[in-house]
Hints:
By secondary structure, the chain is mainly alpha-helical. The chain has seven helices and four strands. The chain has two domains: 11-68, Arc Repressor Mutant, subunit A, CATH 1.10.10; 71-129, Winged helix-like DNA-binding domain superfamily/Winged helix DNA-binding domain (Arc Repressor Mutant, subunit A, Orthogonal Bundle). It is 57% helix and 7% strand. Helix 1 packs across helix 4 (68-90), helix 2 (29-36) packs across helix 3 and helix 4 packs across helix 5. It starts with 10 loop residues before the first helix and ends with a helix. The protein binds zinc ion (ZN) (2 copies). Residues 2-96 form the HTH marR-type domain.
Amino acid sequence: MKYMTGRIDTPQKIRFLKFIHSRESGVKPGEIAQNFGIRASTVTRSLHELGQAGYIRYDSYKMVFLTDAGKDLTRFLQRRHRILSLMFTRAGLSEHDACIQAEKIEHLVPKVHIDQICRSLGHPSRAACGVIDHDPLCCGV
Ligand SMILES: [Zn+2]
Ligand SMILES: [Zn+2]
């Protein structure tokens, strides 16, 4: 996976990528603005940065899709969120609180540390909020 810069690894862009990922048939930028209740100009700027980094593309109808790199990145973002969330539930937080706290800090935790936590949790395959995709480089096949 490409190195994720601080400009890309922000809570807002993580939410955008997950939202685009959830819509296989593409998303209009206006839908993103509406879904998150933010200005269209803010969405445009973020999408521009995600496009520059190679994570999204537009079709001829101006619909937004993830590129293959964007899909890889989003799989990592989901794995990171769920591993942190599981770490919190194992430490005693409720599933709801674990999910919220993971969202607050996930953008600050690099992959190397996610892999360490994954190892310490026994390469889990499930967290409260969903399936944890195994990473061959961390968890084996
Ligand atoms: Zn969650
Ligand atoms: Zn692992």
